[in-house]
Amino acid sequence: MDGEAVRNYVEQSQTLLEASPQMDEENTKVKLIQPFVDLLGWNFYSTEVQLEYTVQMGTQSSKVDYALMVGDTPVVFIEAKPARSDLTEKNVRQLQSYMRQELSVDWGVLTNGKEFEILSVTGDDKQDGETSIATFDLDEMAHNPDIPEILTKDAIQSGRADDIARQLTQTNRAIHRLSDQEESIAGRISDVLQDELGETPLDFEEQSLDFVHGLRHALRERREFIGESTDGEDDTSGDNVSDDDPDTEEVEIEPVENNVAGTIRRTDIEGDEEAQVAVFPTRESGLPFLFENNAWGFVRIGRDFDYVAMYVTQNAREVRYFAKVRDTVVPEDANLIREPTEYVDRAELADNKMVVRFEADSLYQLEDPIPYETKYPQSHRYTTLGEFRTAETTDSIL
């Protein structure tokens, strides 16, 4: 794809969202989703795009917001939601039901103009049904302009999109299997090594478990997974942090203060279950900013939230810290311990980035951190406090 065109689209969309974060569905369609369809190479002002496409659902009919056509045949359904709302599992099931009625539709996109979820009919002979294979947002598109490639008219017509989807599905399935059955798989590997090699000074069980972890990591690194690109910028703090980048040169900062008030279990966090939690990623090198400022920055904020949670990448791979939001201010008004340019490049400060300040004595380290499974936030994600309290892995909240 044309990287410059993608970045221009993202910049324009983010400007519109900042001016109107409570944008309704009709404005979302016209201002955000229609330009996205054009970006993918589908001519919005031709028969390639049909609005309010009728889908027969048994004895009744429903309408999907957009159908992208090849000739007279629909191949992609796009279901739009207002920018002011989140994408939900109910929305996904709705789109799946539409796709199920049209045998020619192998692709679905659910979007609110900020976040995008791709569904594909996967598996041999399509027996797996309509599966969510990838999610991404505007920030991720800005840092990896190739992300929407899978949805372009050229990729779908040429069959290249099917190849990408098949690889993603196979890799994701293998990662889930390794995650769910790691001890069982490691045990069988250990048994084979014991049978073949007999007694050795090595602990086969430990070595086998390390092997399974390494294999899972290798699969994540090898897959070109939309939403988990490692092409992002190397921010010490702020959004778009790539996980597990050993070649990243990081500036070491020794915090002059530590505002962590103590430890807390997630079930002991007080607040309404529907309160909004923004989950931000950070490398370990970004923690001094957190500790000494009792705040997080430099991030673009599109909506209000009540709490902040921090996912620590690299060696940790867990949601480890939690705090209650006090306010959101521009870096110049944040009263930071250091000059902003000691944390990030000056270019980052010129991009409408904000600092989220916490309530005094509200920053805690979690006694029961949320471990990584297969999803991690490359940019911030939202969940509810109720979901955060009960999450078993990152997949439950991302």
Provide an overview of this structure.
Helix 1 packs antiparallel against helix 2. The protein is globular. Strands 7, 8, 9, 10, 11, 12, 13 and 14 form an 8-stranded mixed β-sheet that branches. It has a 6-stranded mixed β-sheet with strand order 1-2-3-4-5-6. The chain folds into 2 domains: 3-167, tt1808, chain A; 262-396, Archaeosine Trna-guanine Transglycosylase, Chain: A, domain 4. It is built from 11 helices and 14 strands. It has helices spanning 3-19, 25-39, 89-101, 138-143, 153-158, 160-180, 182-197, 204-222, 287-293, 346-349, 385-390; strands at 49-57, 60-70, 73-80, 107-111, 115-121, 130-137, 262-264, 276-282, 295-299, 307-312, 318-329, 354-358, 364-371, 381-384. It is 33% helix and 25% strand. With 398 residues, the protein is of the alpha+beta class. Strand 1 and strand 2 form a beta hairpin. The longest helix is centred in the middle third of the chain and has 21 residues, at 160-180. The two termini are 27 Å apart.
- Uncertain stretches: 224-236, 240-250
In CATH terms, what is the architecture of the largest domain?
A: Alpha-Beta Complex
**Beta strand count:** 14
Rough outline: globular
CATH class of the largest domain: Alpha Beta
How far is the N terminus from the C terminus? 27 Å
Q: What percentage of amino acids are in beta strands? A: 15-25%
Tally of DSSP helical segments? 11
* Estimated radius of gyration: 23 Å
CATH topology of the largest domain: tt1808, chain A
Largest sheet: 8 strands, mixed
* Share of helix, binned: 25-40%
**Which sequence of SSEs, written as H and E, runs from N to C?**
HHEEEHEEEHHHHHEEHEEEHEEEH
